[in-house]
């Protein structure tokens, strides 16, 4: 089971790398470095989320970040700042720890990852296969003081 999970994680990182190579072809070096930094940020964010590493996970959000959560969060409105996002995710973390006793607590396997760069803004979108639902995720990041921070997270789902 652990071997299969490690293999899936390696495939995820490889797919991100391949997408990055394709999308950065022809970009200048600075833009390529930003693209690489965004991929690294997303990988670290997903890792922190999967393993429920709260402080690390929380550090990825800008103070003025906003978010829409999937139906499972039972919060249909927009979270308007980091404090509101934290409140909702703390509940997610608590619930996930009830279901498993060791990391990874949440299996997050992004598929069809697309990264779009627009100067100091990056848009990362991907699909998740949730039971009975196709999860759609979009993460918007902004480069602040040489660090990429999440300024918006949109999570929605479509029944399949």
Can you give keywords for this protein?
single chain; 160 residues; alpha+beta; Nuclear Transport Factor 2, Chain: A; 5-stranded mixed sheet; 32% strand
Give a description of the structure.
With 160 residues, the protein is α+β, with helices and mostly antiparallel strands. It has a single domain, classed as Nuclear Transport Factor 2, Chain: A (Roll), CATH 3.10.450.50. The protein contains four helices and five strands. The protein has helices at 2-24, 29-50, 54-58, 82-99, and strands at 61-68, 111-118, 121-130, 133-144, 147-159. A five-stranded mixed sheet has the order 1-5-4-3-2. Strand 2 and strand 3 (121-130) form a beta hairpin. Helix 1 packs antiparallel against helix 2. The protein is globular, with a radius of gyration of 16 Å. The two termini are 26 Å apart. The mean pLDDT is 87.
